[in-house]
Design brief:
Helices cover 41% and strands 7% of the residues. By secondary structure, it is mainly α. Helix 3 crosses helix 5 and helix 4 crosses helix 5.
C-alpha cells in the first residue's frame, strides 16, 4: 500500500476493523489512568456494563459506546483494549469515566491473589496450551 503497510489478506476477515487513527491523548482529553490512590486499574480488572449503561448505549458516543457494548459480559481491561484496538491507558481512563457515570461496574481483583505465583503459573500453562495461528502446539 502507499503508506508502506501490507494489504490485508482478502481471505481472512479482520474481526475488529482498522485501528483508530485518533491520538490517545485526544480520546482522554490528556488525562492519565491514575485512580484516586494514584495507581491505575490493573489490566486484569473486570468490568461489566450496568443496566443504566445498556439503557444509555444509544446515547453514548464513539469509544464510550464501544466499551459499554463490549462489556455486556464481564471483560478485563486488557481484553477490551485488545478487542477495540485502543491503547490500554485510554481504556483505563474511559472505563473510569463510565464507572463514575454508573454505566460500568468495576471489579478490581484481590492484590494478594494477583501476586500468587501459582495463579501466574496456571495462566502461563493455559497460554502455552493454546495452539498458535499455524495450528502448532
Amino acid at each position: 500500500m502507499a503508506d508502506g503497510t501490507e494489504a490485508p489478506d482478502p481471505g481472512g476477515p479482520d474481526p475488529v476493523g482498522p485501528a483508530s487513527a485518533v491520538r490517545p491523548f485526544l480520546l482522554t482529553a490528556g488525562r492519565v489512568a491514575d485512580g484516586a490512590d494514584g495507581r491505575s486499574m490493573p489490566v486484569e480488572t473486570q468490568v461489566v456494563a450496568t443496566a443504566e449503561g445498556l439503557d444509555a448505549l444509544d446515547r453514548l458516543a464513539f469509544e464510550h459506546h464501544d466499551i459499554v457494548a463490549e462489556c455486556r459480559l464481564p471483560q478485563s481491561i486488557a481484553e477490551i483494549a485488545a478487542r477495540l484496538r485502543l491503547h490500554l491507558n485510554v481504556v483505563r481512563v474511559l472505563a473510569e469515566d463510565l464507572r463514575a457515570a454508573g454505566q460500568l461496574t468495576v471489579h478490581v481483583p484481590d492484590a494478594g491473589l494477583v501476586h500468587d505465583a501459582s495463579v501466574l503459573r496456571r495462566v502461563i500453562d493455559g497460554l502455552r496450551a493454546i495452539p498458535d495461528a499455524r495450528g502448532i502446539q
